[in-house]
Amino acid sequence: MKWFKAAVLLVFLLVTCFSFPVQADAASSKYVVKGNTSSKVVALTFDDGSDGTNISKILQTLSTHNVKATFFLTGTGTKDHPQSIRNIAAAGHQLGNHSYSHPDFTTISTTKMKKELADTEALVKSTTGKSTKPIFRAPFGATNSTVLKTVGDAGYTHTLHWNIDTIDWRGLSKTQVLNKVVNNIEPGSVVLMHTGAGAPGTPAALPEMITKLKAQGYKFVTVSELLQMQDSTSAGGASYTVKSGDTLYSIANRNNVSVTELKKANSIPTSSNVIRVGQVLKIPGKGTTAPPPANSGSYTVKSGDTLYSIANRNNVSVTELKKANSIPTSSNVIRVGQVLKIPGKGTTAPPPATSGSYTVKSGDTLYSIANRNNVSVTELKKANSIPTSSNVIRVGQVLKIPGKGTTTTPPSSSTTYTVKSGDTLYSIARVNSTTVQKIAADNNISNTSVISVGQVLRIAS
Q1: How many Cα atoms occupy the beta-carbon half-sphere of 23 within 13 Å?
Q2: Domain covering 30-229 assigned CATH 2.60.120.1060 in the classification
Q3: pLDDT given at position 38
Q4: Does the 234-284 domain belong in CATH 1.10.10.10?
Q5: Do the record's keywords include Transit peptide (predicted)?
């Protein structure tokens, strides 16, 4: 009898164990800047805030050209203009989560992050019948390891950044927005645009943007379609399309591989250094290519940068980079526009801090104003008695800038660049975050294909 009871108990325990599997922890959300593909595809993405003024114009253009895009939605925007959000979903565009009230996720608790995501998901789902999962875009593009872990736990497997920032929210013209995209397009690009009244150049530029990209052979995909192409790429490497001025050494150097490894991966004879413009090279064990290293003792953070990528490009460790810039060892937070000292090189000091003010202009946001003046959004809110939960500012409003001068716009300045062997206006423009057209205009260059080694160019900043 005892033997029978023991057998029954054993069976019960086995059934219990196999009936209730252990729940595995969700993985951190994967941070994506662009698609890992050599195919000519591009994902147009639109961030929607509380002001969706241009949604109808954008949807009409996308429909006319039979293009599907991705819209990252906020809870406040969905609450403010629900019919526009329904129209986006009804047209078959992909939806993503952009938080509820657009806070900087690196400054709030994990509990608050989860609520921002959950409240937006619930509202969008009740409004459209569709989910925002599995894609998320961080407000201001601000992320760190805690944010990615929390977002991943909430069911958002991918956090989408961008490699082309139109900065349309600054009120750029149609031509400026168009050039930002067309001059910087590459396979797998993720383009960031906005739907609000502060970005009038976007709906104006969109028809010609689509037409020009199609003429270059580009196809338009949603973020999920782009991620499927990325996920199907072999984990061991990526690809790079050779551009004018490239050499095997420059490509290998930018991707932190040796010329020997690059030749081997592409079956190039060891005695040869010949590559052709347009040739697609496999990059062994690497993802998307990084820009060239900074040539001075300081570096201005650009869209898509991380401490690791900046340290890697400048041959320093992340620890050294953090120490040189007084960044806590536990933090990986950097912001677009932030000037970092590169240890072991000459340093460029930031301008001296005084106090001042700034008059809000059309297209401004708290983040853009804070970023231009090298202060945090939190400091800017505190100096102007703006509630931590609010991001509302008005055109004409005068804001106090803590620790800054009285300039209302950044002073115009320029630097010079001496053309080196292998340089092109495109490569110089890309390194200096400007456009070929701007350099040509500033230097009275009529033929943008012709520059000379040793020529000194003025680069406006």
Answers
A1: 3
A2: no
A3: 86
A4: no
A5: no
Delimit the CATH 3.20.20.370 region(s) of the chain.
Answer: 30-229
**Range 356-401 has CATH code 1.10.1270.20:** no
262/91 Cα distance (integer angstroms): 44
**pTM of the full structure:** 0.51
Contact 360, 369 (CB under 8 A): yes
- The amino acid occupying position 180 is K
If one compares 338 and 296, the residue with the highest pLDDT of the two is 338
Q: What is the DSSP track for 423-434?
A: --HHHHHHHTT-
Type of residue at 376: S
Q: Among 168, 171, 170, 161, which residue's Cα sits nearest to residue 206?
A: 168
161 a catalytic residue: no
pLDDT tens digits, one per residue of 224-263:
999 887 534 333 457 777 776 677 877 876 776 778 888 8
- Tokens representing 290 are 């990084």
pLDDT per residue over 85-107, tens digit each? 999 999 999 999 999 999 999 89
Do 455 and 420 touch, CB atoms closer than 8 A? no
Asked if residues 112 and 103 have their Cβ atoms less than 8 Å apart, the reply is: yes
The model's confidence at residue 333, banded by pLDDT at 50, 70 and 90, is confident
> How many angstroms separate the Cα of 150 from the Cα of each of 231, 239, 450?
22, 31, 50
CA nearest to 170, candidates 142, 197, 130: 197
Quote the pLDDT of residue 348: 38
Distance CA 30, CA 23 (A): 20
d(CA 54, CA 203): 7
Every domain range in the chain assigned CATH 3.10.350.10: 234-284, 298-341, 356-401, 414-460
Confidence of residue 322 (pLDDT cuts 50, 70, 90): confident
Homologous superfamily in CATH for domain 414-460: LysM domain (3.10.350.10)
- Tens digits of per-residue pLDDT, 386-420? 877 677 777 778 888 887 443 333 434 567 777 77
CA–CA gap between residue 92 and residue 132 (Å, rounded): 13
Q: Which residue has the higher pLDDT, 10 or 203?
A: 203
Give pLDDT tens digits for 348-396: 333 333 447 888 776 677 766 776 676 777 788 888 888 776 777 777 7
* Catalytic residue from among 194, 305, 364, 423: 194
194 is catalytic: yes
Domain formed by 298-341, architecture: Roll (3.10)
pLDDT cut 90: percent of the chain above it: 36
Please report, for the chain, how many H helices and E strands are present, in that order.
17, 17
Strands 41-48, 70-73: pairing kind: parallel
